[in-house]
Amino acid sequence: MQDQCLYPLVTALTANLIAQVAKVFSHYYKTGEWNPRWVYASGGFPSSHSSTVTALTLSIGIQNGFNTSLFAVTCIFSFIVMYDACHVRYYTGKNIELTQQLVKDLRDMMNVPLSDPVYQEKLKTVLGHKFIEVVGGFFVGLILPILLAPLFLQA
C-alpha cells in the first residue's frame, strides 16, 4: 500500500528526468552538437514541465479515479503549467531577445554609451517552449504512468 502512495511522485519525477535527458538527444539531432547542459536547462524538446504535470495528473487519475476532486485539481494545474510554458514563458524569452538586440543596436549603430551594469547582464532568452515542445512533453507524461502503473498498483 505504501508503494501506491509514491506512484504519482515517482511517475512525475521520472517523467521530468526522462524529458530532461531527452533534450540532450533532441538538441544533438537538431544541431549535431552534444551539449549536456540541456539536462538541466529550461526550454527545448520535450517540455519537462509538460511531462511532469501530465504524468502527475494521469497517475492521480489511474490511482484515485478520473472522477475525483484530486484529479480535477491536478488537471487544471497541468493546463495552467502547460499554458504558461507555451505562452507566457515563451514570449518572455522572446521579449528578452528583442530587448538585448535593441541594446546592441543602440551601442553599435547610435554609439550610445550604456555603462549601467543592467545593460551588461546576460539574460537567458530560452525560458519557455514552442507548442510542439509542450506536446512532446505531454506525450512523455501520458506514456510513463501507463508503463509504471503495474509496478506500483498491483491488486
UniProtKB/TrEMBL annotation:
Q: Where are the transmembrane segments?
A: 6-26, 68-86, 131-153
Keyword presence, DNA-binding? no
Entry keyword annotation includes Membrane: yes
Q: InterPro entries per the record?
A: DUF212
Q: Name one Pfam family in it.
A: DUF212
Keywords attached to this Swiss-Prot or TrEMBL record, sorted alphabetically, are: Membrane, Transmembrane, Transmembrane helix
Q: PANTHER family recorded for this chain? A: ACID PHOSPHATASE/VANADIUM-DEPENDENT HALOPEROXIDASE-RELATED PROTEIN, ACID PHOSPHATASE_VANADIUM-DEPENDENT HALOPEROXIDASE-RELATED PROTEIN
Designated name of the protein: Divergent PAP2 family protein
